[in-house]
Amino acid sequence: MCGIVAYCGAPPAVPRLLSGLKRLEYRGYDSVGVGLLHRPDDRLCVHRAAGRLTDLVAALPNSGLEAVTTGIGHTRWATHGQPTAANAHPHQDCTQMIAVVHNGTIDNADEVTDWLDARGHKIATEVDTELIAHLIEEHLLEACDPLRASPVTTTEGPADRVAGPAALERLVAAVAGAVEHLRGSWALAVAMDGVPGIVLARHRSPLLLGVTRTALMAASDALGLGPHVEDVRELRDGDVVALAPNRQVSWYDRGGRAVAPPDPLRLSVRHVDAELGGALDYTSKEIAGQPAAAARILDTVAGRLVGGRLLDDLGLPSTLPVHLLACGSSAYAAAVTARLLTQFAGLRTRVMTASERIASPSDGDVLTVAFSQSGETADVLACLQDGRRGPWLAITNNPGSTLARRCDAVFDIQCGPELAVAATKSFTTQVLAGAALALALSTSRSRRDILAWERVLLAVPDRLAATDALAAPIAAELASTFAGQPGWIFISRGAGVPYAQEGALKLKELAYRWTEALPAGELKHGPIALVTSGVPVVAVTAMPTQRLAVNLREVAARGAQVITVGGRIPDAVLPAVLPAREPPWGPLESVVALQHLAREVAVELGHDVDRPRNLAKSVTVE
Ligand code: M6R
Fold first, then answer.
1. How many angstroms separate the first and last alpha carbons of the chain?
2. Where does the secretion signal sit in this chain (predicted)?
């Protein structure tokens, strides 16, 4: 996970770095730091804090920052070592002259540690990134003294030995040499005391470089670059890049040889509306934003489902088996879509949790549909590297993302920035995109059939708005009754199961409650043993309702507190406005009621609903 930024050029660098970090905080927010080079002699100062960006800002000095021309920054989601100030990036070498920020994981950290230990380096933290700083130090020392056999013994740093006009080039060579020792993934930005500029490197972790009128800016993703960049280029695996304060950029390959830069990307960095606009938190703003978001995406597909026009416009074939892959909430949206593709469109499908992917026996081309709100989820991106058989479609909220850039076609869910960590409107709009795709792929269905379901689809925004109004106050009442319950069970049938799973995930994430989510028919096969007096059982109404009603009687007989969601069975406790006949994509509107329930329980328990503990918006490590 984590986000990195780098800025090189005209002052003021610090506000630019901080605003880049703010935009990247969705990637991790448990600790944060910056490494700053001060004029006139590029003196390096490192500042780190446990907690959020606001904690770092409070720890920065009150004066002297206006002299900063260049810097690197990092917002962290801990993978190695606790989220403390000491473990926050930038990490440094023995001499404290080198500062490194890193996104990714070093797989051979133990081996590198042993090697550095033997050469006398003092490793201060458990964080794999620190090793990179020592490796760079080692390579700088070696460049000065190729015959050096003895370990590091001096506190005299390598900076003075590489000072002068060639300093940045020497740092490039040292970074290129250092990464040769590593296995794993990295996007790196390196600053060094006395060296004017920054060095970047990348291997299997995205890193973009953009140019503004006065400076160079690098970031883990397009959002971090901010609105003023032009000419954005993505580093290739193995690239090492030097950024000089005069905005000169030099590209090198993994051997340190000069290479041509990659072509510029065509991407638009979307403006992020970070205002709460009267809402109590981003989660409630984003739940309430679903009718508008749904209307926006449906507007783009209306009239393009019959005859598969949507497919033609995306440049995709309509006859291939479909593989769907995603993680978390996006995987539940993929599950809804897969069911529709199989049962309604009659296509062969396979849903894969991206983190658990296994290569399937090759039986020809498939259409692979990757669902990812952020388009930066490492497990999803890793699937792209496993080999491709046929076209890839990204269903994403981020058309500038790594996933979108690497897929053959992009279906932009355009639900607007989702700043709360828990997925809400992105889930709803992913389901709508999946439903539209499946209707467009239903070539064996009659035109009349497709048009009838298209009309039901186009009425989703109204039903979402009606559900929002009805469910919010009732969810608050339920939360005040049930918030103290430590364990909850979520059930449904058929097309309702992924929505029950999504509701359970929301409660876990926001309220930190243990949840079990399963098809209602599975209760008797074991999980019903969990039901004791007072355990809340949340049942999402779905067909066949008679069988679900039987399961509810069984849990009620054992003392469960049944919370029905939707309509009909018998009269829902938590209302959701559903179409008269269940559509092939199931009871989508119920999810709004479930989102309110999870948020209200979290609020009742006093949690930060937008930034739940241990989570990050975008999971950028495998
Ligand atoms: O950005 P992505 O859709 O690829 O993210 C996938 C999951 O990490 C994400 O849906 C996660 O489960 C959310 N926190 C759910 O609310």
1. 9
2. none
Domain of residue 312: give its range. 279-458
Which CATH number covers residue 402? 3.40.50.10490
Ligand 1, residue 423: give the atom nearest the CA: 16
| Mutational test site, ligand 1, from 1, 29, 329, max ligand atoms within 8 Å of CB | 329
475 within 8 A of 604, measured Cβ to Cβ = no
User: Radius of gyration (Cα) for the chain, nearest Å?
Assistant: 26
When divided into structural domains, the chain yields a total of 3
Give the residue, by CA position, lying nearest to ligand 1 atom 4.
372
Q: Are 527 and 473 in the same domain?
A: yes
Q: Based on the domain organization, do 62 and 200 belong to the same domain?
A: yes
Helical spans, DSSP H, in 162-266: 167-179, 222-225
Same domain, 320 and 467: no
Q: Is 327 in the pocket of ligand 1 (CB under 6 A)?
A: yes
Is residue 617 part of the annotated active site? The answer reads: yes
How many angstroms separate the alpha carbon of residue 402 from the centre of ligand 1?
15
Mean pLDDT of the chain: 91
| Residue 501 contacts residue 593 (beta carbons within 8 Å) | no
Q: Which residue has the tokens 């009606």?
A: 466
Cα of 199 vs centre of ligand 1, distance in Å, is 31
Q: Which residue has the tokens 């889930």?
A: 427
Do 622 and 355 form a contact (C-beta atoms < 8 A)? yes
Q: Is residue 502 part of a domain?
A: yes
Mutate to test the pocket of ligand 1, among 27, 221, 327 (most ligand atoms within 8 A of CB): 327
The CA 332 to ligand 1 mean position distance, Å, reads: 10
The CB of 373 under 6 Å from ligand 1? The reply is yes
pLDDT at position 533 over 50: yes
Backbone φ/ψ region at 424: left (φ over 0), alpha (ψ -120 to 50), beta: alpha
Same domain, 161 and 234: yes
Query: How many Å apart are CA 74 and CA 20, to the nearest integer?
Result: 10
Catalytic member of 22, 285, 506, 617: 617
Q: Is the predicted pLDDT of residue 619 greater than 90, yes or no? A: no
Residue 155: predicted pLDDT: 45
pLDDT-wise least confident of 124-128, 224-228, 550-554, 600-604: 224-228
Distance CA 165, CA 155 (A): 24
Residue 572 is predicted with a pLDDT of 85
